[in-house]
Q: What sequence folds into this?
């Protein structure tokens, strides 16, 4: 908690710098300031606290069955976490579903620990077992830090999810006719001063899909890809995607396959 | 209003039928996507599942994006003609309001999300994508710069006959951008009820009033 205070005061200092730089043309100073601030936080990324909490939760005996998650199969065999994240979402025979890391972890929390997956999915972001899930997600994902995305596309289910994700990505709707592609379909795009990754292809190492889960400085929260997609859809003026729904998985497959070769920098840090 | 829409859709139906030669695999994926959409969303706050429904223009433009090739000319023209019919000119014949109020609308990106309520005043989202006045350095780049919009188009008196064409075009563009560019990414602010007639008058003034900072 103490650490969080330090980060906030650092933020104030940078905010002042931003204010001073505001007169320059097109805010280059502002952008530099943000980059500098992010760099500063890399030395002590608060996401590490979530990673540590996630490691504890992974190893701790919990739930009605009083078991740990250490035998959870994330696609590379029971208990293997290194490299699992950069191959997700993928198809799992036992559930008959394509799953991302978060929905797969819920499966393990159900089968190994006896939790009710539906209850976890319905819990609001940042609360109870949903917060625990994000911490575990951060821990497992971080075990693949520096590795490159390489999602399998061997099964029909995975191929179908890619094609479904592509259609969702370009689906215009709502009062504003927004689709994911409205903001993330071109190179070099910006909303206000915020750079937007082009998610129709590999946008580069640690960018776009390869930048989550991430710690968000603006609201001091750790966000998973599920949370990120949820907020994208909010801004699109779409109704809410259910947690772990096939729409969110399909978009994960689309972005993940497009990001083939991109280095995961998880846990990332965002404005 | 409703009648206009019904007639406007007719030419599109013919175009859609003609375009129905996609590969069977593509159709299967379309069906799979529709099923996923149907099962994946829930209403929240002021946003209902109705927001998922696509009109013909959105359906056609989305499909073209998925296919990775632009719509053919005939379909493009049909969409633009149908969208143009939705444009409602100002009821009192006055096109320009107050540029200061227009600046506020251009700055705001609020409204119509599930975290807004029914009382939230909708913004125009303009600066999210466009440079507009020179004073605001935090602007997006998905749309073209609108700095000096009226000036570069030679508008010295928006009420003059010389300015009529550009004034009417700008009104139409704000009301329904896709009347002029079938698959434009710009929201159809008037047509979809995001901005009111008075709101659009104010944004018009921001762009075209010689006194607006945009034209300084």
A:
């Amino acid at each position: 908690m103490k650490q969080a205070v330090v980060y906030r005061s650092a933020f104030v200092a940078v905010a002042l710098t931003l204010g001073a730089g505001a007169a320059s043309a097109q805010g280059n100073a502002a952008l530099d300031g943000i980059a500098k601030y992010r760099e500063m936080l890399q030395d002590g990324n608060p996401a590490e606290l979530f990673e540590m909490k996630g490691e504890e939760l992974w190893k701790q005996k919990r739930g009605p069955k009083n078991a740990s998650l250490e035998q959870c199969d994330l696609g590379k065999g029971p208990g293997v976490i290194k490299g699992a994240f950069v191959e997700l979402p993928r198809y799992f025979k036992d559930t008959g579903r394509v799953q991302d890391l978060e929905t797969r972890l819920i499966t393990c929390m159900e089968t190994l620990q006896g939790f009710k997956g539906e209850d976890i999915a319905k819990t609001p972001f940042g609360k109870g077992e949903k917060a625990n899930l994000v911490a575990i997600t951060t821990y497992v994902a971080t075990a693949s830090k520096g590795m490159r995305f390489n999602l399998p596309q061997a099964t029909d289910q995975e191929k179908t999810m890619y094609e479904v994700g592509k259609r969702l990505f370009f689906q215009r709707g709502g009062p504003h006719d927004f689709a994911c592609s409205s903001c993330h379909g071109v190179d070099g795009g910006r909303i206000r001063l915020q750079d937007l990754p082009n998610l129709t292809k590999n946008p580069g190492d640690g960018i776009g899909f390869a930048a989550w889960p991430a710690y968000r400085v603006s609201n001091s929260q750790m966000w998973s890809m599920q949370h990120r997609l949820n907020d994208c859809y909010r801004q699109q003026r779409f109704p809410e995607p259910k947690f772990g729904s096939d729409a969110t998985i399909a978009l994960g497959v689309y972005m993940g396959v497009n990001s083939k070769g991109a280095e995961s920098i998880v846990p990332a840090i965002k404005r | 209003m409703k009648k206009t829409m019904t007639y406007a859709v007719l030419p599109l139906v013919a175009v859609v039928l003609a375009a129905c030669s996609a590969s069977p695999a593509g159709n299967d994926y379309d069906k799979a996507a529709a099923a996923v959409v149907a099962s994946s969303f829930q209403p929240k706050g002021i946003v209902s599942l109705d927001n998922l429904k696509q009109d013909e223009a959105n359906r056609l433009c989305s499909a073209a994006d998925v296919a990775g090739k632009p719509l053919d000319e005939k379909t493009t023209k049909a969409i633009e003609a149908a969208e143009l019919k939705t444009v409602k000119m100002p009821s009192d014949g006055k096109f320009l309001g107050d540029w200061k109020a227009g600046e506020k609308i251009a700055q705001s990106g609020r409204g119509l999300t599930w975290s807004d309520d029914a009382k939230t005043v909708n913004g125009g989202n303009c600066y999210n994508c466009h440079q507009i006045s020179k004073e605001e350095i935090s602007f997006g780049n998905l749309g073209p710069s609108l700095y000096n919009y009226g000036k570069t188009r030679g508008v010295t008196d928006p009420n003059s006959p010389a300015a009529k064409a550009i004034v009417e075009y700008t009104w139409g563009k704000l009301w329904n951008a896709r009347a002029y560019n079938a698959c434009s990414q710009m929201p159809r602010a008037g047509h979809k009820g995001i901005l009111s007639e008075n709101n659009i008058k104010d944004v018009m003034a921001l762009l075209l009033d010689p006194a607006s900072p945009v034209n300084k």
The beta strands of chain B are 41-42. Confidence is low (pLDDT under 50) at residues 1-23 of chain B. Chain B touches chain A through 44 residues (CB under 8 Å). Chain B is about 45% helix and 0% strand.
